[in-house]
Design brief:
Structural class: alpha+beta
CATH class of the domain at 7-139: Alpha Beta
Distance between the termini: 172 Å
Radius of gyration: 51 Å
Helix content: 40-55%
Shape: rod-shaped
Largest sheet: 7 strands, mixed
CATH architecture of the domain at 7-139: Alpha-Beta Complex
Strand content: 25-35%
CATH topology of the domain at 7-139: Nucleoside Triphosphate Pyrophosphohydrolase
Order of helices and strands: EEEEHEEEHHHHH
Length: 215
Amino acid sequence: MARKVAIHAAGGIVVRKGSARALVAVVQRSKDDRWVLPRGKLKRDENARAGAQREVVEETGHRVEVKDYLGAITYTVRGQPKVVQFWRMQAAAEPSRDPARDIAAVEWLPLSAAVRRLSFVLEKLFLTSVGRHVVRRKHRPRAQRKRVKRRAKPPAVKHAAKRAARSAVKTPRRTAARNPRRKTQRRRSTHVASATTIRPARGSLLRRMLGRLKG
C-alpha cells in the first residue's frame, strides 16, 4: 500500500498594533467564505519560513517581519494529511499591496474576537493557545525599569561603619618628642640647687667653732 504524501503549508499569527490593543489578522477565502488564519501551500523545495512570509504578505497585503516559531496543526484533506506550520509575525501599520484574488476580505480584530471569527475549530484552539503569548510578547508596553532601592542598614551597622570611616580618615595626634638631653640637664640643675641650699659650707663651720673657743 502506497504511503500518502503529506501536504505542507505555512502561515502566521500576524499582529498589528492598534490604537488601544494589538490586533490579529484573519482572512476570508473567496471559494467558501470561510474565515481562516493567513496561510497557504508551500511551493516545491520552498523553505517553510520563507513560504509562510510569502503567503501572509499575499493574503493580507501587509509587509511582515517573521519572529519566532509557534507550532503546527495537522488535519486531513480528502483523505490526505496536511501539515500547517505557523510563525509569529509583526505587520506594518499600512498595507503595501492588495490581497490576493482568492481572499475576499481581511480583518484585524482583538484576540478574543479573532478566535470567534475563525471557522475551523482546530484553528480556534491553536490561536487560543498561542494568542496570549503573541499579543503579550510584542505589544505589552515596556515596563519602566524599577529603581533598585538599597536596603537600609540597621542603626548599629550604620554607626559602626561611620566609626570605621572616621578612624580610617582621622590622623594621629602629633606628640612632641621628648629630648633626653633636656631631661638630664633638668635633673642635674635640680641636684646642684639642692646641694647648695642644704649642705653647709665647711669653711663657715670651722670659723664658728674657733670663735666659740676663743671666747
